[in-house]
Design goal:
60% of the residues lie in helices and 1% in strands. It contains twelve helices and two strands.
């Protein structure tokens, strides 16, 4: 899609989001006839919170900076995704999924911005442990992620209208297809695609960081299928009981704490059935990620490397969301394990807790998948460039 049409669609999308995020709560308060202290009920559509992420307190930075960060990042990523779309403006499934992944990445970043703005912190920036812990507690309801899941469809009406009216002269000018031209700014046609073996090699390279994180895992339970070591059930969740293995502190903090379901190793107090359920969720994540990476590599071959990098990042987030769907039905329920800091009376919906953890994990670690895929493509390209002159020389010698 050319620059002008992409800019118009992304700007309209961002404007609609800004109006909703900053005006929804005041309008609801005025319609209810109450003051700023009035507590409004949740508004849900298909189980998703519609206005929980909207700005409710502009008097403190924590109340509006995450929303602003989401708007800026989501607008930039949306524009980049639309620029990589085909010039005919036809909505395609891969582009829609990339838009959804871009919105979820922006939501994960916005949720991680919140803990840095906590006025209770004595430091300018909290430590890494405090940062992750606050993000996990504050993100128990996954409000940014829920907003990203439903708001990504706000772009569809204008995009579909542009495609339906693509033969109308003003729209043809916007699309850059007037007089048979394509705008001159489109990416060059991709070269011949890689072989199936090369695609598999790139996918395997992209899976390496996720497999390592799953093997290391975090010492966090997501279920109560455990052996009781004491009369008090709370002691079952004490970290010091999860011996004899502990991964390095940075890996333990930034892998399992962000997405506890991504774990392959059993814990000391865990029953076999609970561990097998956790492994199933982990395998679902890896299988969906492998399929998504294969599709991304097949489509992005010959295009700009940044597109491959970002699409692999989006694929990681979407695979984590797919695993969260499985986890919310398989591991969590009435007997779900308690969340640290949530309190005994906190109402945490299983899907919301899993969704928040999964999107934060994808936002923090998706770059590793993209970097590994990009590195594998670069290595194979260099190797092919070195062997090509040798093959041509052998062919010329045989011809002589």
């Amino acid at each position: 899609m050319n620059r002008l049409m992409s800019l118009l669609l992304a700007a309209g999308y961002a404007m609609g989001q800004a109006v909703f995020l900053f005006a929804c709560h005041p309008v609801r308060l005025r319609a209810a006839g109450g003051g700023p202290g009035l507590v409004l009920h949740d508004v849900r559509l298909f189980g998703l919170d519609l206005d929980g992420f909207s700005v409710q307190d502009t008097g403190r930075a924590q109340g509006w900076v995450p929303q602003l960060a989401f708007l800026v990042l989501c607008s930039v990523l949306t524009y980049a995704v639309l620029r990589s779309a085909p010039p005919d403006a036809r909505p395609r499934l891969r582009t829609v999924l990339a838009l959804l992944g871009a919105g979820l990445v922006a939501a994960g970043v916005a949720e991680l911005v919140g803990p840095a703005l906590d006025p209770r912190s004595p430091l300018l920036l909290p430590t890494s442990g405090e940062w992750v812990g606050r993000a996990q507690v504050a993100g128990a309801t996954a409000l940014p992620e829920q907003y990203a899941l439903w708001s990504c469809w706000l772009l569809m009406p204008s995009w579909v209208a542009a495609w339906l009216l693509r033969r109308w002269a003003p729209v043809r000018v916007l699309l850059g297809t007037a007089d048979g031209v394509t705008g001159g700014a489109e990416s060059p046609a991709p070269g011949p695609g890689p072989t199936v073996r090369r695609r598999r090699d790139v996918v395997c390279a992209g899976l390496i960081p996720m497999v390592l994180l799953a093997v290391a895992g975090g010492a966090v339970l997501r279920h109560t299928n455990v052996r009781q070591l004491d009369q008090s059930s709370s002691i079952t969740f004490a970290p010091e009981l999860w011996l004899p293995y502990h991964p390095p502190a940075p890996v333990e903090r930034w892998s399992g704490v962000l997405y506890p379901a991504l774990r392959m190793r059993p814990l000391d107090t865990e029953e076999t059935a609970g561990w097998l359920a956790t492994v199933v969720v982990c395998l679902v994540f890896l299988a969906v990620l492998a399929a998504a990476l294969y599709a991304v590599v097949r489509w992005a071959e010959g295009r700009h490397p940044v597109r491959l990098f970002m699409n692999c990042w989006y694929a990681t987030v979407l695979a984590a969301v797919a695993a969260a769907l499985v986890e919310s039905g398989l591991l969590q329920g009435p007997r779900a394990a308690p969340r640290e800091g949530a309190g005994p009376t906190a109402l945490v919906r299983p899907f919301e807790a899993a969704l928040g953890d999964a999107v934060r994990f994808g936002a923090v670690w998706g770059w590793a998948t993209g970097a590994c895929c990009l590195g594998a493509v670069w290595v194979m390209t260099r190797r092919g460039a070195r062997t090509r002159p040798r093959v041509q020389g052998e062919q010329l010698s045989h011809a002589e």
